[in-house]
User: Fold this.
Amino acid sequence: MAYASVCKHRNLGEGEMVPFTVEGQEIILVWPDGGELKAFTGVCPHDNGLLKFGGFNGRLLTCTLHNWVFDGRNGEGLSPTGCALEEYPLRIEEGWVQVDLPATVAE
Assistant:
């Protein structure tokens, strides 16, 4: 795994969710109100719905495909419980948000 630059940190704001496609992978950067910036998979674990079309109210992330709800602070499933979004390691280097993505399997 290697860190990939996603965007400038200054372009993100608390209470926002911003989607990106990085190295062919859908990710979302989520900055919950009063929390820390997080990087999660951009795909719902239920039916592979793209979370970039979902809603984020500063704390809760909702997949519009079947209304699954996740906690933006840790990716844990709230409705239903027992599921979670995959979280990726994140760092800020020289003003850039960088995310450590898993290697993709070559087809």
The chain has one domain: 2-99. The domain at 2-99 is CATH 2.102.10.10 (Rieske Iron-sulfur Protein). The chain has a mean pLDDT of 93. DSSP finds no helices and eleven strands in the chain.
